[in-house]
Amino acid sequence: MIEQHHQNKVFIAISLDGYIANKDGKVEFLDTFPAPPGDDMGYSAFTDTIDALLMGRNSFETVLGFNIPWPYTKPVFVWSHTLTQVPDELTSKIQIVKGSPFEVLQQIHALGYQSLYIDGGKTIQSLLAHNLIDEMTITTVPVVLGDGIPLFGQLDEMKKFIGISSKLYPNGLVQNVYKRG
Amino acid sequence: MIEQHHQNKVFIAISLDGYIANKDGKVEFLDTFPAPPGDDMGYSAFTDTIDALLMGRNSFETVLGFNIPWPYTKPVFVWSHTLTQVPDELTSKIQIVKGSPFEVLQQIHALGYQSLYIDGGKTIQSLLAHNLIDEMTITTVPVVLGDGIPLFGQLDEMKKFIGISSKLYPNGLVQNVYKRG
After folding, report:
1. Is residue B62 part of a domain?
2. What is the pLDDT of residue A1?
3. So what's the ipTM on this one?
4. For chain A, N or C: smaller number of CB within 10 Å?
5. What's this model's pTM, rounded to 2 decimal places?
6. Beta strand B135-141 with B174-180: parallel, antiparallel or unpaired?
7. Containing domain of residue B154, as a range?
8. CA A116 from centroid of its chain's CA atoms
C-alpha cells in the first residue's frame, strides 16, 4: 500500500488589511466587486483537489447563517468542543470532531480523507501554529476594512511559505498561492 | 499653466499577516528570501515616477539605524511634530514638516513636488484615512510573523481599491499593485 500524502490547504478571501470578516463576523465586503461572469475564481478547481473540509464552529455557523442550501458536496468536519448536534438535515454531511490539531487530523485521516480544505480563522491559526498548513490560496479583496476578524493571529515563531502563483482577476481581485517553505 | 496631478503612492513590503516590521521595529524578515539577482523588484522603476518622499519619524529613524549611506536621491520630507533637527550631513536632503495631512501635502506641493512616495505605517494610515493614497504597490514576503507593526490600522470606514497588477517573483515573493477605487 502506498501511503497517501496528507495535505492541508487553505482557500480564503481577505481584505487588504488581512480580515476575513468585519468585527461582527459579517462578510459583505466579499461582494464589493462582483465575480467575473462565469468564473468562480478557482474555487471548483480547488475543491476538486480536496477530499473533505475542516472548519471551526464560527465558520460553520456563518455558513448556516447564509440561509442557502448546504453548499458543500464533500464531507465537512466541524471542529468544536461545545457543539453537540447539527441540524437534522445535515447529519449525513457533517461530523463534529474534538481534540488537539493532531488528534483531529488523525480522526479524519483514519476515515480515509487525506487532502483537506481548512477553513476559518481560528482553525487555520491552530494548524499553522503546528506547521500543519501546506498550501494557502489567498484572494485579496482590495478594500481596507479598518477593523475585523483577522486571518492570522499571534504565533511564537515565524512560519515560512513561498509564493508559487499570482493572478489578477478582471474584477480587481488578486489571488496568490503559497506553499509551506 | 497646466495643473499637475498630485499622486501619493505607497511601495512597501509586508509579511503574509500584514506587518511591516516585527514588534521591536526590526525588518529582518524582509531578507528571508534574497532578491532575484540583478532585479530590484520594481523599486527603481517606482522611484523614477516620484518627485519626493514623505515618511514619518519612525521610518526615518529606521533608515538612519541601517548605518548605510543615505539611500534616497530624491528629497525626503519627514513628518514629525517632535523632531527639530536632522544629522548635519543630511540637512540638504531632508526637511521636517508638521501639520495635518492636508497641510503637510500642501507644503510639499508648494515646493513643486507632486508625485510622492508615502512611507511608514502611521503616515500611510493617516493619508489613507483622508482618502489621500492613490496607489499602493504591496510586496508580500511569504512569512507569517505572528506579531509586529501592521501596515494598516483602524479606520472609520472601508476604503476601496482595485487590483491593477499581480506578479510572482522567482524568489517566491508576490507584488500586487492597487489603485484607489
Report:
1. yes
2. 47
3. 0.94
4. N
5. 0.94
6. antiparallel
7. 10-180
8. 9
